[in-house]
Structure formats: C-alpha cells, structure tokens
Specification:
elongated, 75% helix, mainly alpha
Length: 400
C-alpha cells in the first residue's frame, strides 16, 4: 500500500509538472490566446488548496499577467484598437497576483527562515504601473461603475500597507493617497455602502478641503440607512465648519426641532445668524424661532428685513401674517376683552390679512396653513364675500 501511495503521488507530481511546463511554453509564445490558456491551467491548479502555497505556480501566473498587461500597453502605444476597461482590469489582476506571489514568497521554510526571492524585482516592476490603479478608479467612476471604481481605489491605497511595497514609503510620499481615499468614500456613497465609505475615512478626511462634501455624503448615507446618531454627528460637524452651507443648517435645525430640542435649535440658529445676518435661510430660521417663542414684535421686525431681501419667499409672508394673527387670536380668546381690545384685535387681523393672502397666492397647495387663518380673519373683519369662499374651503378641509 505504501508503494502504491508513493507511486500515485509521483504520478500526480509528474502530471502537475507537465501542466506547468505546458503553461511556461504558452507564456514564452507571448500570444494572447496562449496566455489565456496558461492562465486557465494555473487557475485550475489553484483550485486545489494544497497548491495555493506553491511558489512556482504563482510565478507562472504572475508572468502570464505581466505579459497580458504588456500586450495591452503595446496596443495602446501603437494606437491599435483596445478595450480600455479590459486593460485596467488586467492591471488590477496583475497587482493581485504579484501580491499573492509575495505572500507565498514570505512564508518561512522548514527551518523557519524567510528568504525573499521575488519581492525586490516585483516591487521594481510594479511601481511604475501603480498610478494606473488610480486612473482605473477614475475611469470606472466616470462610467458610473462604482463597485469596480471602488476596488481600484482600494487596491491603490492598500499598496501603501502591503509588505510587497516595503521601502517605497507611499504613506509619506504619495500625494494622491488622500484623493484616492476620498474617491473611495464617494464611490461607496454612490453604492450606498457604509462600510466601503468609511474604510479609508481618516485618510479621506486628512485633506480638510474635502470635508464639506465628505460630511454631506456621510450624513446622507447614514440617514438613508436609518443611523440617526451618525447622521446628526456629521450634520453638526458640517455646520461647525461650514455654517453657511445650505445642506447642514436646515437639516440640523429641522432634526432638533422635530425632537423637541428647541433650545439646541435656537443655539444653532443664533450662531448661524451671527455668522451672516443677511443670509435669507438664517433670517427665515431666526424669524420662525422668534414666532414659535411668541416674540412677535422681534419676529415682525426681522421678517421685514427678510422680505426686503427676498419678496418671493412664501414662508416669510406666512411668518409675518402669523405674527400678527397669533396676537389677534390671543385677544380673541379673552372673554373679558374691552372695546379697546376688540379694536386692537381687528387691527391685528387687518395687518395679518395681506400677508396671509400673499402666502396663499404663493403657496396655494398649503391650504392647511392659510385656510384656518383667513377664515378667522374674514370672519372678524366682516368680509362677507371673501368669508363665503373661504368657508367653503374650510369645510372641505375639515371633511372626515
């Protein structure tokens, strides 16, 4: 039985050598079809996990990938017809195979020694081609093939950490790393893949000029995935660094108000207003905060400034109208009002009227806001024809 086992192993080893010899012959021919055959032969051997630690197989496969890439580059140089996507894919494959070869090369021998036979030559060969990984990422990004693009950016970045490139010091010398990391974040965002977005996040954020967009992408991704805590975290970071950015401020204040954190929302609004008191968005937020707090006179004065800057903003007219209307309602609800107070109430309804009518004209679909207000205004000002029309709308609005 022992003799039979040894003989069987011998036959297996002999057959494997023949396969490898055949593959080497294919590689030497350098023909595209032969290289594909050699690649298949080696990949067939690697399907057996026992063979994955065999250096010679990986050497042949690396030679195949190198030849395939050189063929593609030669066609490009000669301006022959070539599939650009295929050339980039071959580059990715080449780097992956050489890195696998290096991992096998770095395995200790039977005496526990590590003797590197290929690293220096592999590193020297691959280094000039590494920028093509970044270019491949850009290429596939432009084609909206974001999973492929992310793989290229990731591979480009990972070179900075792989032992194969020890001595190249990419982390300190490669000025494109932070850009590649930002692009990895962006392509992860386009895939709605949080893990891919944050894999190289510290590196992506190492360039502060990209924080503005990065924080936005992160916030959008987290809220889309139901992660409110991280959503608010990046809204806050974005607002702290970019208070005038129209993305962070309104979403942050909306969130805080929706959670009943009006004091926190007011702090954010006040800070934004202090940064730019002429910003229409900040003025409106401040106007709304004053309205909700019942500071009607301040609200009116500030909203007048807002309308002077933008007289086509429906919500500004609504705030102005409600600032007068709410004061009138407060008097209207007082059962012990005097004739003087009744006159004051009607004056307030009269002041509210043009603003609520303008709001109606600019925002006809927001009936739930202007119908009840105009109903009370027309009723108290004895405006029969206008009241009949608004009464009909009021009834429709309140139908079960």
């Amino acid at each position: 039985m022992l003799v039979l086992l040894v003989f069987t192993c011998f036959l297996g080893a002999t057959a494997q050598r023949k396969v490898m010899d055949q593959a080497r012959t294919y590689v030497k021919s350098g023909k595209e079809a032969d290289l594909a055959k050699a690649e298949k032969l080696m990949n067939d051997l690697l399907r057996d996990s026992v063979n994955r630690g065999k250096e010679k197989i990986w050497v042949i496969l690396a030679d195949v990938a190198r030849k395939q890439y050189e063929l593609g580059n030669e066609k490009l140089y000669l301006k022959q017809k070539i599939d650009t996507a295929s050339l980039f894919t071959t580059a990715m494959k080449m780097f992956t195979i050489y890195e696998a070869l290096d991992s096998v090369d770095a395995l200790p021998d039977k005496k526990g020694r590590v003797v590197l036979h290929h690293r220096s030559k592999s590193q020297e060969f691959l280094h000039p081609f590494r920028p093509n990984l970044y270019k491949g990422g850009i290429f596939f990004t432009r084609r909206n093939e974001f999973p492929k693009a992310w793989d290229f950016f990731d591979k480009y970045i990972q070179c900075a950490y792989h032992p194969l490139y020890d001595g190249m010091n990419y982390l300190n010398t490669d000025t494109l790393l932070s850009t590649a990391a930002y692009m990895a974040l962006y392509t992860g965002y386009r895939m709605k893949d949080t893990l891919k977005m944050v894999k190289h996040l510290p590196m992506a954020l190492s360039d502060s000029t990209r924080h503005e967009n990065a924080y936005r992408y992160l916030a959008e991704n987290y809220i889309a995935n139901g992660d409110t805590a991280h959503y608010v975290e990046y809204l806050q970071k974005g607002f702290e660094q970019y208070p005038t950015n129209p993305f962070f401020f309104p979403r942050l204040t909306d969130y805080l108000n929706s959670k009943g954190l009006t004091d926190s929302a007011t702090v954010v609004i006040d800070r934004a207003y202090a940064v730019d008191s002429t910003n229409v968005l900040f003025l409106f937020a401040k106007s709304t905060a004053l309205l909700n707090a019942g500071n009607y006179e301040e609200c009116i004065m500030l909203t007048e400034r807002l309308l002077a800057l933008n007289d086509s903003m429906p919500e500004a007219y609504c705030n102005m109208g409600l600032a007068y209307y709410n004061q009138a309602i407060a008097i209207d609800r007082n059962m012990q009002r005097s004739r003087k107070k009744r006159r004051a109430m009607q004056e307030l309804y009269a002041k509210s009227k043009p603003y609520m009518e303008k709001f109606r004209a600019l925002a006809p679909d927001q009936q739930s806001k202007w119908v009840p207000a105009l109903y009370n205004i027309y009723l108290n000002l004895n405006m029969g024809r206008e009241f009949e029309e608004i009464d009909s709308l009021y009834r429709q609005l309140n139908q079960p």
